[in-house]
Amino acid sequence: MTVHVVSVTFPYSIFGVSAYNNTIIDLLYGDTVSATLDQDGFNLATQEAWLAANPFVFELINCTVSPLPRYNGETFVVTPTTYGIPYSCRAVLTHQTNSGGTTQTKTLTVRGDSVAQFPTSNGLKTFDAAGSITLDTDYRCVRFAGFLSGNVTYGTPVTLNVTGLVNDGTWGYNNNSQESWSVQTTLNSGSITVEAVATGTHSYNIQLFRD
Amino acid sequence: MSYGIQVKNSSGFTQIDGLDRNLQIIATGTTANFPQAPQFSTALPPGVDNSVVVFIAPNSTSGVGQSNTIPIWGYVDLAANEFIIGRTLGFSFYQGSFNYVVCVANQSEPTSGYGFNTYTDNGDLAFSSAYKQMKGIAHATYNVGTVNSPGQYIVFDENNPAWAYDTSPQDYYVMLNALGRTGVLNTGSTMYYRCSFATWGWSGTQSWHYGSYDNRLVVGGSSLASGTPPTGPSTISNDTRTQIIARNI
User: Fold this and answer.
1) Which residues in chain A are contacts of B136 at CB distance < 8 A?
2) Pick from B74, B94, B71, B75: which is nearest to B210 by CA?
3) Within this chain, do residues B139 and B124 fall inside the same structural domain, yes or no?
4) Across the interface, do A134 and B79 touch by the CB < 8 Å criterion?
5) What is the pLDDT of residues B189-221, one digit of tens each?
6) What's the ipTM?
7) Which among B68, B94, B128 is the end of a domain?
8) B51 to A144: CB separation less than 8 angstroms, yes or no
């Protein structure tokens, strides 16, 4: 997030005429512009009074300016309202010549393109043939990591090694066997222990999944 | 992973990888109303294999009874090609129906000719944009407990950041496969199932059971179910189960 600095000073030599400065600055997401426009040469009390009563008039497209009001020589910050589309800030200072004659304007325009925020959300969004969402970016999806089937005999526990298995909230399993109440499973780090709690031999069918 | 594709959601959880097959929805529906019986069955689609996973949620906008809850247990009976939903002993008077979602891993390859498929290293279809995914919300691994050792339970309620705005308890499904029986408790005069359970609870009335008045879903072990169980093990299995709370949206 960079603060780009624009400082324009109009010399006294052009005090009596209108003038402008047009600066193009393209902004990345979060960038702002610190701008200053200063017309030199105000040397009469009447002019100082004029300036004090006449701040910059801003014409803003897709941006804001702060703080307000701003007077000759004071710095203001330009911030895009929406990054990803162009912005433009035109600051117009109207003043009289030192002789009190015709009013002149001094204009500073800062404009450019801006880059939208890089998406912080990840994920995938998919649709079926009917246009319905089948997966959205914020879905947490259950995935089968394996199926572990077999038999276990009372008094002879079975250890099923599962690479990477930890109880971290992303691994899980259920024994989907009809005899599940005859079997007790225990989650270990890297393995599942299967033991029979009733006499005889009993089947197990473990659905191992991650999410 | 060393090949294929890996996609993570904004919370860092993996959605798709090159190793595992996603659960893919093959059927949805609504059960019959709960009869005045301890349990009832619902047919599974024909031909499902042992990868079948069933998610259920009550088709109701409120609970029942003083506690304003719907507590159940259940299991998948693959041999009979059906799933069972039963009542626990905890004021389970619900007589409405349940919405269910049936998922498998071994879904056939879609024939639409477009979209996005991924495959495991042995060529199994792992993910297809043609098949809808359940949106996983919360994950709980717990022990069911024994007679002398209460099982663990997990409360998922409106205070949880994963509880979506403007949703109600019935919007959250539980994995029926985690709700199986773990033994028979013989009190001498009555026999009960010991089972892993799920309870949907609605706010607004007295909740005597868990001390919470929020909309909530409680899953865990150590509940009892009535009925006439077949001969079963009298030693209670302190089994490990994993419950996935999910939405079908």
Assistant:
1) 139-142, 211
2) B71
3) no
4) no
5) 777 778 888 999 988 645 444 444 688 999 988
6) 0.86
7) B128
8) yes
Tell me, yes or no, whether B173 and B226 share the same domain: yes
- Nearest Cβ partner of B132 from A134, A145, A198? A134
Contact call for residues A99 and A44 (beta carbons, < 8 A): no
Query: Of the candidates B128, B157, B184, which is a domain's last residue?
Result: B128
What is the chain B residue with the closest CA to A133?
Answer: B132
Amino acid at A192: I
Q: What is the DSSP pairing of strand A32-39 with strand A3-10?
A: parallel
Query: Do B39 and B115 share a domain, yes or no?
Result: yes
Give burial (CB, 10 Å; 0-12/13-18/19+) of A144: buried
Same domain, B91 and B174: no
**Are residues B173 and B145 part of one domain?**
yes
| Contact between chains at A139 and B15 (C-beta distance less than 8 A) | yes
CA A63 to chain centroid: 18
A123 contact B CB<8A:
yes
B196 touches chain A (CB under 8 A): no
B124: domain range? 7-128
Q: Is residue B92 part of a domain?
A: yes
3-state helix, strand, coil in chain B (%, to 5): 5, 45, 55
Prediction pTM value: 0.72
The DSSP output letter for A81 is: S
* Residue B29: both structure tokens together: 């529906």
Residue A201 near chain B (CB below 8 Å)? no
CB contact (8 A) between residue B20 and residue A143: yes
| Cis amide linkage into residue A11, ω under 30° from 0 | no
Contacts of A155 in chain B (CB under 8 A): none
Quick check: is B1 in a domain? no
CB contact under 8 A, A139 and B22: no
- Is B129 within 8 Å of A127 when comparing Cβ atoms? yes
Say if B2 falls within a structural domain: no
Residues of A in Cβ contact (< 8 Å) with B241: 174
Contacts of B114 in chain A (CB under 8 A): 129
pLDDT, tens only, B65-112:
777 889 999 999 888 999 999 988 866 789 999 999 999 987 788 887
Cβ-Cβ pairs closer than 8 A, A with B, add up to 180
Residue range(s) in chain A whose domain bears CATH number 2.60.40: 3-112
Domain A3-112 fold: Immunoglobulin-like (2.60.40)
Q: Domain tally for chain B?
A: 2
Average pLDDT over residues A94-121: 80
Cβ separation B131–A207 shorter than 8 A: no
